[in-house]
Design goal:
Blueprint: H1 3-20, H2 22-29, H3 31-48, H4 52-63, H5 65-82, H6 84-97, E1 100-106, E2 113-122, E3 127-133, E4 140-149
Parallel strand pairs: 1-3, 2-4
Helix pairs in contact: 1-2, 1-3, 1-5, 1-6, 2-3, 3-6, 4-5, 5-6
Length: 150
């Protein structure tokens, strides 16, 4: 996986942990996902510890994930490029976490109906992220429409 894509995927995987905590992640995504996300975050803390800028950005990300997400993602992409061990470790943890799907929709004005993800089933342990941004909305925007989770 390319460094930028891996960094974006890792940050997407740990953001729910930072926002909601391990217990909430375990309830929605499963114990394995929570365990692997925690391991990823701890790996980042360990690797970023020796770099003041990276450590500070990660700490601010933990306090305000949406604001600092792009900064930490950018720093992580640089670290992955220069550290093959970090790339391998994060890739391993991500693979052990389970299936992952990220949908990004950037729309102008919306007057119809838009759905980010439509699925009959999302299995426990899958990591699904839907990020939607729209201008003026006079229609209906749905992040995910899922018949069954679990």
């Amino acid at each position: 996986m390319v460094a930028g894509a891996l960094a974006a995927t890792i940050i997407s995987a740990i953001t729910p942990l930072v926002v909601k905590g391990a217990t909430a992640v375990a309830k929605t995504a499963g114990d394995i996902a929570a365990e692997k996300a925690t391991a990823m975050l701890n790996t980042l803390k360990d690797k970023f510890r020796v770099d003041g800028e990276a450590a500070g950005a990660l700490k601010r990300f933990e306090a305000n994930p949406e604001r600092y997400k792009p900064i930490v993602e950018d720093i992580l992409a640089e670290k992955i490029t220069s550290d093959p061990q970090l790339s391998a470790e994060l890739s391993r943890l991500l693979n052990e976490m389970g299936a992952s799907l990220k949908v990004i929709q950037e729309m102008g004005d919306v007057s119809g109906e838009v759905t980010g993800v439509e699925a009959s089933e999302i299995r426990r342990g899958a990591n699904v992220t839907v990020d939607q941004k729209a201008g003026n909305v006079s229609g209906k925007i749905t992040g995910a429409r899922v018949d069954r989770i679990g």
